[in-house]
Design goal:
alpha+beta, 46% helix, 94 residues
Length: 94
């Protein structure tokens, strides 16, 4: 479901840029949050994976498949785990 939302947002942005006469890139990189909380950890931890949205793909089903393939590979990656941001009560209060 999130993959479809990413494609919808990218498609909307592409339409705006096209209406303005801007050049359209082949892809656009976006950071996507992913939970990297360890099992049994009371704190929430969020990492980010970078996804290349297929900006020029006009077939929406194909675009969702492209994004889904990327997210399935990127979620368990060390890069996503390495960009963690622990969410703690102390951090929220500071």
């Amino acid at each position: 479901m999130n993959d479809a939302y990413l494609v919808a947002a990218g498609t909307g942005l592409r339409f705006i840029l096209e209406d303005r006469g801007e050049s359209i890139l082949k892809t656009i990189a976006v950071p996507v949050p992913v939970s990297v909380t360890a099992i049994g950890d009371a704190r929430s931890a969020v990492g980010f994976m970078i996804i290349e949205l297929p900006f020029q793909e006009t077939d929406l089903e194909r675009a969702v498949a492209i994004v889904a393939k990327q997210t399935s590979v990127a979620k368990p990656s060390p890069r996503a785990a390495g960009t963690t941001f622990p969410l703690t009560l102390e951090a929220a209060l500071v």
